[in-house]
Amino acid sequence: SHGGCLRIWPSNGRPPVDVAPRADRLVLFISSLEHEVLPAWRARFALTTWLYNKRDTALESFAEELRQRKANGQLNAKALLQALDDDDDDDKDDKEGCAAESDGDGEDVMLDGQTARKVLMEILRRKARAGHTREAVAAPSKG
């Protein structure tokens, strides 16, 4: 009645959902969903917490590094595609199932096919969840 609703747009294209502010109400949702807080005409208080998964953060960092290398002309796409095509399950202890990629300093970084597949599949999953409405992967470069 005094505004301050949380509006969330479902990723499936359905109409937005308004969640009225109520005392002691806990609302959890994936932050990649489009959302906003509507204007309030009385004081409203909210506590926001972000939870991060180390595995996803590392994957996002790696994906961002690949994107930056591509933008700088340093990504060897042919080597990456070759790594994706290689079946390296039997070659984990040697470099035959790996592809070389320039790290920008003239050094090659070994990228195995399994890692490349996992990275690209995660990027595709994130883009699908985001509905292609915005960039789905963004993070600082891998360290």
Automatic annotation (TrEMBL):
InterPro entries linked: HIF_prolyl_hydroxylases (IPR051559), Pro_4_hyd_alph_FE2OG_OXY (IPR044862)
Record-linked Gene3D superfamilies: q2cbj1_9rhob like domain
Organism superkingdom: Eukaryota
Record-annotated Prolyl 4-hydroxylase alpha subunit Fe(2+) 2OG dioxygenase domain positions: 2-52
Record region (Disordered): 82-111
Acidic residues bias spans: 84-93
Alphabetized GO MF terms: ferrous iron binding; L-ascorbic acid binding; peptidyl-proline dioxygenase activity
Record keywords: Vitamin C
Swiss-Prot/TrEMBL GO biological process terms: cellular response to hypoxia
Name used for this protein in its record: Prolyl 4-hydroxylase alpha subunit Fe(2+) 2OG dioxygenase domain-containing protein
Organism: Calcidiscus leptoporus
Top-level taxonomy: Eukaryota, Haptista, Haptophyta, Prymnesiophyceae, Coccolithales
